[in-house]
Amino acid sequence: MKFLNLFWLLSFLLFSISCSKDESITKDEEKPTITINYSDGFPKACAELSRGQSYNFKAMVSDNEALASYSLDIHHNFDQHTHDDQGEECELYPKKSSVNPLIFLENYTIEGGTRNYEININVNIPDDIDVGDYHCSYSVTDETGWQSRTSIDIKIVE
Amino acid sequence: MALLSDSSISMNIFMNIQKILILLLCIFTSSMAFAQDGYELFGRLYNAENEEPIEAATIIFEDFGTLSDSDGNFLITCSSKGLHHIKISHVSFVDTSISIVFDEGMKSLNIALRPYSQVIAEVQVTGKTNARLDRESTSISELVSEEFLAQNRENTLMQTLKKLPGVSSINIGAGQSKPVIRGLGFNRVAVVQNGIKHEAQEWGNDHGLEIDQFGIENIQIIKGPASLLYGSDAIAGVVDILPPEIPQPKTTNGEINLVGDTNNDLLGISAGIQSRKDKWYYRGRLTYRDYGDYKVPTDRISYENYIFDLHDNNLRNTAGREANANFSIGYVNNNIKSETFVSNVNGKNGFFANAHGLEVRTSSIDYDASNRDIDLPFHSVNHFKLSNTTTIVSGRHLFSFDLGYQLNHREEHSEPTAHGYMPKPSNTQERIYDKSSISLNASDAFVYNSRHRITTGVNLDYQNNSIGGWGFLIPAYQSFGLGLFAFDEFEIQEDLHFLAGIRYDYGVMDSKSYYDWYPSPEYDEEGNQIDVYQQRASDGSLHFGNISASTGLSYIRNNNNFKINIGKSFRMPLAKELVSNGLNYHMFRFEMGNQDLDAEESYQIDVEVEHRRGNFTVSLSPFVNYFTNYIYLNPTSRYNENLQIYEYTQAEVFRWGGEISAELNLSSKWQIQGSGEYVFSRQQSGPKKGFTLPFSPPVSALFSTVYHLKDFAIFKNSKLITDFRITGAQENIVPPEEITEGYSVWHFSWVADWAIIKDAQPWEIRLKVNNLFDVQYFDHSSFYRLIDVPEPGRNISLSLTFPF
Lengths: 158, 804
Description:
The complex is a heterodimer.
Chain A: H1 2-16, E1 33-35, E2 48-50, E3 54-62, E4 67-76, E5 104-109, E6 116-124, E7 132-142, E8 147-157
Parallel strand pairs in A: 2-8
Antiparallel strand pairs in A: 1-3, 3-6, 4-5, 4-7, 7-8
Chain B: H1 3-21, E1 32-35, E2 38-47, E3 58-61, E4 64-67, E5 73-78, E6 82-90, E7 93-102, E8 108-113, H2 116-126, H3 130-136, E9 141-144, H4 146-152, H5 157-161, E10 167-172, E11 176-181, E12 184-185, E13 189-193, E14 196-197, E15 218-223, H6 227-230, E16 237-242, E17 251-261, E18 267-276, E19 280-291, E20 300-303, E21 306-309, E22 320-332, E23 336-350, E24 355-356, E25 359-360, E26 378-394, E27 397-413, E28 429-447, E29 452-468, E30 477-493, E31 496-511, E32 514-515, E33 520-523, E34 529-532, E35 535-537, E36 540-557, E37 560-571, H7 575-579, E38 581-584, E39 589-592, E40 600-613, E41 616-640, E42 643-665, E43 670-683, E44 700-708, E45 715-727, E46 743-754, E47 763-770, E48 795-803
Parallel strand pairs in B: 2-8, 13-16, 39-42
Antiparallel strand pairs in B: 1-2, 2-5, 3-4, 3-6, 6-7, 9-15, 10-11, 11-12, 13-14, 15-16, 17-18, 17-48, 18-19, 19-22, 20-21, 22-23, 23-26, 24-25, 26-27, 27-28, 28-29, 29-30, 30-31, 31-36, 32-35, 33-34, 36-37, 37-40, 38-39, 40-41, 41-42, 42-43, 43-44, 44-45, 45-46, 46-47, 47-48
Helix pairs in contact in B: 1-2
């Protein structure tokens, strides 16, 4: 009978193991935030950008612990494959195919483990690229690996 | 690999040989005539089962042989008086020896021969029952019967098995799912069918298991590491779909199953037939299922900042269809059992159109035109399987061989669109995967003495994986694996069983390099732009060797059953874990392999205690598990172009948990069952130290009541079954997951026999309502959880089975 008791004991022991010693390591459970909804935020939904000009793309990012990197992606939306998350519907041009679209794909790191940061990227819009609907998306990560994104529908005009 | 399942048969056959020897023949009368040249014996042979005469049996008498005629009659002559031996043999009957004293005044001899089938049937009665063997077996497993499957059948096999404590599933919409055992899934659960490991794209998270759930009779689910027998991938457990039982001789039967669901307008039909003469038998089955988009109890889905309005609650473009065929032919005699299976499973499923994976998409396709069409994006899969499983009993040996060939072809199609530097592709064929694999298992279970049974075996597998399409995720690769194992099952006492075994595995994987089909701009040292076809995977050859071992003990004491297992299991890393280097547009991330990964190793102790008393059964099965290096896809804080880099990483992981279940028969009419499951995991090292593992299932409990109704009208044996599942919130998450709220959901079903034709087999009817109150809830491990899609709403399902 002792053998049996041992078994029951062992099984309950296994069940209760580490139940008691949850040493709760502090985990970062918060995503960073990203927004263009402030006065300097750029571009705003449905903004029109002109060829040959240069613009400062600005967004505000923050995190509860430490920001790590961010990226900016500008690609054409001539086939209307996606739309933004700004809650504002931009009127899109008719669908068309691309010849020489603008592609901007860059990423940057944020040094020093800061919690608040303003993204500021200078983008030249070349003279020879296709005009039309474009899609611009920002993303940001914190040091834990959480990511947040936001995207904006814009137009590039003559 | 079908060792455990065959062990009962082998034991029984050994017992049976003795029985055959002492088999008493029915000698009703005997007579012998004295002829001039000796003593004549007139005999008649008949079948003990049905008393039909047996033709063409060989009767050996001294050096003289003769055959029985069509009436079963034979005549032998003997020159001398006294004791003589006669041997009678026939392909379909048990060999029989009789001793006879030749004398004057003998009449005729009627001899009954026993057909093999009867012997086999009897073995199953007199041998140990499966339940007893399960209690003696040290492995902590669940045996799933055909009845359970029929009574609980859901849309997919894994959704059906989810009712078992410790088993859950990763669902991809309503029509596809993958197995999860104690919180681990994908390549950590080996799925075995008819002795052969199912080889498909298990790693993928957007498609299910290519197995027809109709026609499955018995499944053994091993909870806990089972590398010893099943090799790599069985690190968390095994879903072993056992070959169906051999049909009874001289029978032909079958069934037609019809099923209809309201939630996704599913219509399914399956028809199966099986037949056996004496030693040869065959079976076949055809299944077709066609379903529309499934409905969720919400009008709109909000994902990140996007809002998608749903038409008629339809989760657009989640329709699908499946067509399966399988056939097998088998042979059985008293020491050989061999069955060859051929099957093909073909399916096509759409993916939710607005957000495939994580990426938000818009399209000009009119997805709401019909809820049955399958538009882009979709995937299609074809799985062909040819296998043979053979067991041979020879003396004290039971040899088992499983040989299999599988071909898995999967295609993913989506609307082509330019992405990053990739121009718009010319077709929809985003990815193609072809996997062909050959596996061979051979083993010998040797009954050393009445106490020890020693099994040794070898597993070999070779697979060739090729890729196609414009999207790259994993490289093409070939792999070869060899496993050698030996274990001893030791019956210390009748109620105390011990198992110890060791295994060695060797694996090689050769992966092929892959370059983008389009150039990306890069800048040289002088700042000039150059176009580069980026390399996404490099040629690589990786070798792995691993030793695993396990030991277990089972003890039966009165109403109690105790089991304990300690084991080490392993898993060979996958090609994608080692060498992937690509953009996963589905998941909107960049995935990077890591060539420094080791073979994953896991140590586990698990215990099961079960107590039965009269109408009450309770069981508790806790486990503690430690991974030296659990491999997972870790979201880093870095970017590649604009996509977050996810890198395969290994970390120490500690897990514990278990299941508890209880069953009470209140009366002959009422049964109550309850079960609960819980898993805790924590990474003990690495970049996500302190976090849990991806897809960790939350604590969950299931309460069921079964009420047996009185027979009424033409409905017999009817039962009302109520299931109440209550699941806690999953707040223990790891990036990029989100906290999932808890939920409770009711399911209800009524099953009955429908004796519509007198004296014929009754039809079986089942009416089921899932999610009775149309509750909106989220399943933490569902594929669509990532984009905030709730689980299916209320579903009423009617299924009918017509046996013949």
